[in-house]
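Hi all, long-time lurker, first post. I run a small reading group and we've been trying to get comfortable going from sequence to structure in the token notation. Rather than ask abstract questions, I figured I'd post a concrete chain and ask someone more experienced to write out its structure so we can walk through it together at our next meeting. Sequence below, copied exactly:
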Amino acid sequence: MRILVSNDDGYLAPGLAALADAMRPLGEITVVAPEQNSSGASNSLTLHRPLTISRAENGFTFINGTPSDCVHIALTGLLDQMPDLIVSGINNGQNMGDDTVYSGTVAAAMEGYLFGIPAIAFSLLDRGFEHLDVAADVARKLVERYISKPIPKPFLLNVNVPSLPREQIKGIVGTRLGKRHPSEPVVRMMNPRGEPIYWIGAAGPAREGGPGTDFHATAAGYVSVTPLQIDLTHNEQLQGVSDWLTH
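-- Answer (accepted) --
Happy to help. Here is the structure in token form:
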């Protein structure tokens, strides 16, 4: 099996190395990741400047662009053969609920899914990479399961692993995305020249985190696996919008 590994924390991130190590026994791996931390880059592609491809001492390829750039370039010009699977992560922090809209980790996997390749995004809930070995073990087991029991159609999975010791992980469950409250207000500061600058506020707490959601599962000690789709059409509103346009 050919596996493409990417992330959004950058090619030097511990989570990327752990994920690559977890995938290495399962097939032929290629790592293509951003040069810099690109958290929050979502699905952006770099179209206003050329991109450069470099090779790190550990053999990883890194690109001075976004996570989507990395996967896109790998699939359209860098690899001799298309991968059988794309994995992204292991992210330094959770990607649940509305986070998935902004996540570069999810975006890297999604870029592969847009090309018809099965893809999985992995995230470790708490920042700091504590219990990273547990998340890497979860990633390996899920990919092993896919190899032994393939899913017939391309898929996009968003996996979040609680930052817990292995013995406290209760299992792996399928979930839906929860929802967050709006983010905290921007933080206004002054730069050394006395000019105002702004930091984006922290993400809001869970607003919908009941049973069945990724928030609920991870809070109870379970790994959450959420299947995602790309079609953003609001089908329930389509008829109403059509009526509004024609009357």
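A couple of things your group might point at:
The chain has a mean pLDDT of 93.
The helical segments are 14-23, 67-78, 99-102, 104-114, 132-148, 214-219, 235-246.
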